[in-house]
């Protein structure tokens, strides 16, 4: 397995897909990086030479990815929580932040559903 930025990327997949295993890199950024490094997007990771992997690593140094990006995102969330912005209070309460409904969904953030007894008529 090739190791880029501390992440093992799979050998048997195309390099454009393998790079998406790195936090902060999606398909479009992966394609852009490979175009800058002049590497074919259809090649498999196992077929790349060490020189080509080094070219990819050099291109990745231009972007904020992995640990630095995670740290930056967490700092932004903490800042919003400290200044008591609307988003920050939603983060504190564990509710959806981006305007989603909460009366019938959002279980992943609010926790397990609570059953409510039937109302008497």
Structural account:
- The protein folds into two domains: 65 residues, Helicase, Ruva Protein, domain 3 (Orthogonal Bundle), CATH 1.10.8.50; 38 residues, 30s ribosomal protein s13, domain 2 (Irregular).
- The protein is mostly helical.
- The chain is built from six helices and two strands.
- Strands 1-2 form a two-stranded antiparallel ribbon.
- 9% of the residues are buried.
- Helix 4 crosses helix 5.
- It is elongated and about 75 Å long.
- The termini are far apart.
- A hairpin with a 2-residue loop joins strand 1 and strand 2.
- 45% of the residues lie in helices and 5% in strands.
SSE order in H/E notation? EEHHHHHH
Briefly note the CATH topology name of the largest domain.
Helicase, Ruva Protein, domain 3
CATH architecture verdict of the largest domain: Orthogonal Bundle
Task: Trace the largest sheet across and list its strands.
Answer: 1-2
Quick synopsis:
The chain is mainly alpha-helical and 121 residues long.
């Amino acid at each position: 397995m090739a190791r880029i930025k501390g992440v093992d990327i799979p050998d048997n997949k195309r390099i454009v897909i393998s790079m998406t295993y790195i936090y902060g890199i999606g398909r479009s950024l992966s394609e852009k990086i490979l175009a800058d490094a002049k590497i074919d997007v259809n090649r498999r990771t196992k077929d790349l030479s060490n020189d080509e992997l080094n070219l990819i690593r050099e291109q990745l140094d231009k972007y904020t990815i992995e640990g630095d990006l995670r740290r930056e995102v967490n700092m932004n969330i903490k800042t919003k929580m400290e200044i008591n912005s609307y988003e920050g209070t939603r983060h504190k309460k564990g509710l959806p932040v981006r305007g989603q409904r909460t009366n019938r969904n959002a279980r992943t953030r609010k926790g397990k559903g609570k059953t409510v007894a039937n109302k008497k008529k």
